Every structure is written in C-alpha cells, then in structure tokens.
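Why run this: before we spend reagent on co-expression, it is cheaper to look at a predicted model of the complex and decide which construct boundaries make sense. The entries below are exactly what would go into the expression plan.
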Amino acid sequence: MKQIRIGIFGFGKTGKVVAHEFLNESLFTLAWVVRKSNQDHHKYASRLLGHEFDAGEIFSIEDIHNGFFLERPVDALVDFSGSTGIYLYKKAAEAGIPIVAAISKYEQEEINLIKTFSKYTAVLHSPNITLGINVLMVAAQILQKIAPHADIEIVEEHFKGKKETSGTAVRIANVLGLNVEQHLNSIRVGGIVGRHEIIFGMPNQTIRLLHESISRAAFGQGAIFAVKYLLGQPPGLYTMETIIAEMFRENIPVY
Amino acid sequence: MKQIRIGIFGFGKTGKVVAHEFLNESLFTLAWVVRKSNQDHHKYASRLLGHEFDAGEIFSIEDIHNGFFLERPVDALVDFSGSTGIYLYKKAAEAGIPIVAAISKYEQEEINLIKTFSKYTAVLHSPNITLGINVLMVAAQILQKIAPHADIEIVEEHFKGKKETSGTAVRIANVLGLNVEQHLNSIRVGGIVGRHEIIFGMPNQTIRLLHESISRAAFGQGAIFAVKYLLGQPPGLYTMETIIAEMFRENIPVY
Amino acid sequence: MKQIRIGIFGFGKTGKVVAHEFLNESLFTLAWVVRKSNQDHHKYASRLLGHEFDAGEIFSIEDIHNGFFLERPVDALVDFSGSTGIYLYKKAAEAGIPIVAAISKYEQEEINLIKTFSKYTAVLHSPNITLGINVLMVAAQILQKIAPHADIEIVEEHFKGKKETSGTAVRIANVLGLNVEQHLNSIRVGGIVGRHEIIFGMPNQTIRLLHESISRAAFGQGAIFAVKYLLGQPPGLYTMETIIAEMFRENIPVY
Amino acid sequence: MKQIRIGIFGFGKTGKVVAHEFLNESLFTLAWVVRKSNQDHHKYASRLLGHEFDAGEIFSIEDIHNGFFLERPVDALVDFSGSTGIYLYKKAAEAGIPIVAAISKYEQEEINLIKTFSKYTAVLHSPNITLGINVLMVAAQILQKIAPHADIEIVEEHFKGKKETSGTAVRIANVLGLNVEQHLNSIRVGGIVGRHEIIFGMPNQTIRLLHESISRAAFGQGAIFAVKYLLGQPPGLYTMETIIAEMFRENIPVY
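The model came back. Tokens follow.
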C-alpha cells in the first residue's frame, strides 16, 4: 500500500510529539518538517526523536520558496506552528493539498485566508484536535438541548505553569452560550496535563462529561484522524467538531 | 388549560416519590393510585404525602374490575409497581390509554403482553426512566462507534444494602456488548443513592460519562417526561432510550 | 441503661433532621425542642416527624424563663437554631449542662459569651459538625505540612439555590492559609446536596480529598457523636476539628 | 555545599526516570548506575538521558566485585532493579551506606537479608515509594479507626497492558484488613498511568481519598525524599509508610 506523505509545520513541544506519532504509523511517511529557526537544519526529525531511520528532513521557514512544495510533494500538510504559519503554505493550498491547521487562535486576517484556501482544497481548522474534547463538545451541546433546564458549569484543570484560561474550555463555554466569567472555573495545580469537566446539574441528578489528557500524543492521534478524514473530501472548510458531529449523526443507535 | 389526569400503579418507596412529583406539577392531576395491599384504602395520596388537598384516592388491586377505568378515566397510566402489575390494566390499554411502565425486569410472558398492548396504544417500557441514565446510554453507544479501539469499563456505586448488581449497569453493559463479569464493577458502600460511570480509555486520553442520582424524584421527573412525550404519539412500543436517541438525532449541532 | 436526655434549639430544615436522628437512636431520649415561633406549640416533635410515640415537646422561645432548665432537665443541649440562640441557655450553661452549638457564624459578642460558658461546662462549637468535613480539614492541614510545595485548590459544589460561598469551604481555605478569592471555586448547579474537594497538585502526582454529602442527617450524626464525646469531658471550649485532630493523633498507625 | 553522591541499581523504564530526577537536583551527583546487561557499558547515564555533561557511568552487574564500593564511593544507594539486586550490595550495606530499596516484592530470603543489612545501616524498603500513595495509606488507616462503621472499597485504574492487580492497591487492602477478592476493584483501560481511590461510605456522607499518578518521575521524587530522610538516621529498617506516619504525628494541627 502506498504511504501517505506528510509535511509538518512546527517542531515545538507539541510539533515533536505529533511528528513522533506520524513516524510510528506505517500508513504514513514523514516527508519533511518546517520550523521557525535554523536549529537542526537538514537533520532528520526521525533521528532527533530516537528512530534509526531517516525521515522528516528539517527545514527552516527561510527555505520555503515558490518551488518548495513542487520539489518536495506531500499528500497532506499538518500545521502545529502558530497563527502566522499559514502564510507559508499558500502555494500548497492552491495546489489542492489538504491541510490540517491545529492552531489555537487566528486573527480575522488569517481566518479570511483559510477561507480562501478552502476554495481550492479541504482545510480543517480546530483549536483542539483531540477526539475526546470534540466528543465532549458535541455531546454537551446535545445534552443542553435535551435538558434545557439543567445548570451547566465547566471546570478545567491544568499544570500550575499554564497562565491563561484553557482555550478549549472557553470554546466549550462559547458553544454552550455560557458566560466565561461566571461559569468557567480554572484550577492550576502541579503537573496536571489537562482535565476538562462539564457538569449538568438537575434537581435530582447530575451528569458529568469528563475528559482527561494523559499525553500530548493525543494531538498527534487527532491529526492522524483528521488527515485520514480529509483525504478524499471535496474542497471546503472543516473542523474536528463538525466531523465528530457528523459521526454522532451516523451512529445514533437504531432499535 | 385542561390538566392531564394520571393514574399510578405502585405506592412503595419509589411510587410515593413519583406520586409526589405529579402532585407538584400543575399540568397534572393525580386521579388515583392503586397499591397491592388494603393499607390506606380510600385515603388520598396527596394527604399522606403532606398536601392540604384531596388527590390520588388510594385503591387496592382488589378494587380493579372491568369497569374501573371507565368509572375513573385517566389520560395516562404510570406503573411503578412490579412485573405483575401489567395484568391489571389490560382494559385500559385496549381503550387506548397511554402507558408508562417503569418496571425493572419483565419475564417473556409480560413482554409479550406489553407488545400486545402496543397495538392499541402508546406503551413505554424502561427499566430506568431517568433522563440522565438514558442520555448516558445513548452517548456511550455513539462514543463506542466513534472510538472503536477505546477500552470500556463500567463502575456503579450504590448503598450497602443493595444486594444485586444495578440493572441499569447491566443494561448499559449489554447495549455496549460488554461481558458483565469482566467489565462491570459494583461498589456497595454507605448510603450512596446511585452513581454510574462509563470509562472510555484510549492510549493518550480518557473520557468519563458520569451520572449521579441525588433522589428518587428523578424517576418521577422521568415519568412526567415520558407521559408528556407519549400523549399524541401513535400506538407502538417506546422506550426512554429510543426517545432520547431520537432527541440526539434532532439536536446534533449544525454549523 | 439510662438514656441520655437531649434538648434541641432550632426546628428548621436541619433542626428537624437532627431531631429525627436523635429519636432514632435508643441511647437518647428527646426531652424537648425549642423553636422561634409558636408553631406546633406543645405538640411532639416525634409525632410531627412520623413516629408513633410522644417525645420532644415543642416550646417557643417565649417559654424560656429562668426555671425552664430546672423543670425540664436534660443531659445535653444541641443548638441548630441561629447565632442568637445562645442567649437563651445561659442558665443551662451555668448549671454545667454540656452544649453542642452547631452554628455557622457567630459575631464577636457571641464568641465571648461561648467562652464564658466554657468556664462552667463543656461547650463544642463547630460551623460544620459532620465527621467527614472535619476529617478532611485535619487531613488537609497535615498534608500541606508534609508536601509544602504542593499547589492547593478547593472546589465546593452545592445546589443552585445556595447563594453564598460554602462557609465550610471558606473555613478550609482559612486553616490552609489560602486566599479565598484565588483558590476557592464555587459550583452552583441543580440539586447537589454538598460536595467539597481539596486538590493537592504536585509535579508528578495529584492527591484529592473529597467529601460528598448525601443527606442532612449527617449533621444529626455529627451532633450525636459530639454529645457522646462531651459527656464526661471537663469544662472547656471544644470543636469537632480539635476532637478529630486528637483522634488522628491517637490512631496514627504503629508498625 | 557538598553534593550527595548517589549510586543507582536498575536502568529500566523506571530506573531511567529516577536517574533523570537525581540528575536534575543540584543537591545530588549521580556517581554510577548498575544495570543487568552490558548495554551502554561505560557510557554516561546523563548523556543517554539528554544532558550535556558526564555523570552516572554505567556498569553491568558483572562489574560488581568486592572493591567496587570502595573504588566508587557513594553516600546512598538507590535500588530500582528487581528482587535479586539486593545480593549485589552486601558490602555496601556492611560499610554503612544508607539504602533505598524500591522493590515491589521480595521473597522471605531477601526480606531476611534486608533485615541483616538494617543492623549496619539505615535501609528503607517500600514497594511504592511515592509520597502520595503513602499519604493515602496512612490517612486511610486513621480514617478507618475514626469511622469504624464506614464501608470501605478500593478502586485502582491502570493502563490496559498492566496484567496483574496493583501491588499498591493490594497493600492498601491488607493494611485496612480488607479481602482483596471482595473489596478491590481493578480497571484496565487505555493509557491511564495510575489512579488509586479509597472510598469510605457512611449512611449520609462519602469520603474519597484519591491519588492520580501523572508520570513515573514521582518515583524519583520519592527516592530523593527517602535518601534525604535516611542520611543522618541510625541503622534500622524503615519504610516510606512509617516515615509518613511519623510526619502525620508531628504535623497534627495544634489549636
């Protein structure tokens, strides 16, 4: 079977773990990685991550010129860099290469750009690309409709060093129409990787939807899931949330 | 607005709480209650439950004769008695009165009978009629399809005195195709009203769906929900689970 | 065996449950109950709470005169009324009757009064008299000393209608030296009876101490525990917390 | 300040993490590591673990001869190897070097040997050396004494691949006198690092003591804690549990 060739933007803490996950799946071959700095220039991501083979040659953003994507063709692009990474792969988008943009926060200008891209190719943008968080997000919206009188609160727990409120939790609050100041509770202690809880309180019963992150590899698995989904999809703008919502629809139990 | 007239079978611990919930909702009027024994014969359930008005005259099962349902017409029947209660309201079913049968366990004979009833009227049978448990049940089945590689375990916690495994937990295991011996864990301590947890373990993340019962009134609220739903439905066999599954389908978020 | 005679101040929601618990324990006899209003004057608390015997004659606060405690002697006083209840039983305190004051919040004046009482008799004052909460409070203080670098957060969950922050949670924050604004998180949803969680986050592990209330009867059990303890103790000021701390000391495992 | 010289036995998954933790603490210098095989012979553990300096030269067990501990003196020994590692450092023990043996399970013969060692030096043996688990263990024993009527259940959750019951959970059951078959519940799903919960159920309240492992580094931190404690202690047999119990005693809150 022909392997799916992947190019990754971003080689920070999460980017490395994501590269690692793609390297471990035989379905994929990691073609290259683009990082901001010149560090480890032309080395192989595979070697840096402890593998005994060459894969994922490392380029700097200065290496990206008009011919880059022609000379080093990939079947899908995965972006874990930052909000400005998107400006680098306009050519790839126009050439119809599917894109997974796992970027926490875009400004309006980049959102416009991604919409332009989506005319040429399948583009998926999600601030949190893990399966579990998106399952929670969809289930919570349904539950809110089924039990409209339930009181809802969100609790998110992360390691002490995480300064800002969880963007994922803010997103959950937004889709549920909850005021962040009032209904989002942030706990910062020790080394908790990530824990999101949505509490539905009714007079005689409580429902809790709970997601616990064990490792950042969940982001890599989410990206793998997203790439597999995008291949074969028509051009358009996708999110993990819409994919999961669609999967909910297709998997409603039949009696 | 015309009130919905309710007749209740069963006046045990749960039956009383259910009667109480119907008495508290102005949409309903409690016409009568049928209990097994002659205790409190012809008294009013409302008075016994601390209300200052007359409602829910108490009858014994010996009072049920062919004309009972004609003389004391109701708009819906709610059965929290036991597996044999069903034999008492054949006439009512044939007359097209909607029935909510919240019975933990029927033998084949009673299942056949309920199917017969369902030709004449809308019959809902659910071993656990609470909203929350059925939401958990439907969400778990969908999640199992979305994340087929997740390991699933069920933990149910109840008060020390509850001898048998939670029928609800067994039902959850069954719909998920899980071996009860291997994947259902029962905790019996102190006075826990009821807690059901479904754990989905993936390599890098864990999802937990959790339902905590606060009081038996949740059964009354479930019965109210079921009665409202059944009124206006065509004859047929319904379950809370199918209703909730349908509500999932209708409330998938649209983007 | 001679029964312990109890007098209760307060017959509100909690007071009733407490009376109920004392009525259910054969070690005790409920001599009387004093309530603010004239409601149910001279009726028996036992009858109002569904028992078939006479116990706990109900008096109004206007009935309390100098001779009251001589005419209706008790072995211990239990106060679940309010911060001003204390002014009623000065005579009883001076006569050496042990007092359990389960009052959420006293002003300085009442604190002074209780100190005066403690010269004559054993007085226990605790805003939360449940065993579990006091166990949590003591264990948390020890744990904070053992793991001084752990980050600590408190989460308290209660029913939607509870307007104010849990006094118990504030007390926990205070004994741990935590800023209430920063480290105390309040969740208000549905019908949750009461849930207090203390989270100790360390870089590689998390410890959670969790207390869940099932019913207000826990206050009655706490009062029973307190009365049993106070009988036989010398005059002085006690709290549930100091008693539990003492029990911790006596029960450190020996190897 | 003079650094504390450490020798480590064992360089498997946990041994590596433990070495890593010692390398990160400036109070310590890692003198050497002994592993079973000849792999990475005479390389530096520090280099293998990504550090840019030389520390922790790697020896095989075949390198251990009578003069080993004289030629390469350390201030404390830490053993994360296996039950037979103990036979290698008899000479070190006789020379009075403190020993931390974090071995899950010893047979009687090794228990006897460790007792012999404890005549010459301070020896600490604990199957689980994390602070949190030992805090749970001590707190649970105290709580059982304070609330003797509480029902107790243990739930332990670990990754799917863990075949056997958690030795730590078995140990908790044993100190609480609980039948493992009846009161210990094991959940095996996905990638859960480790979670131990002790549930105390009372009629009106539930207390839960919960420990969640985030990473194996907790074992390294536990070893560091143990070494610091042992230095300066007289010869004898210690356990983390006894040390934590002693810390409980010293930190009972005073009012």
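The mean pLDDT of chain C is 95. The radius of gyration of chain C is 19 Å. Bring this page to Monday's planning discussion.
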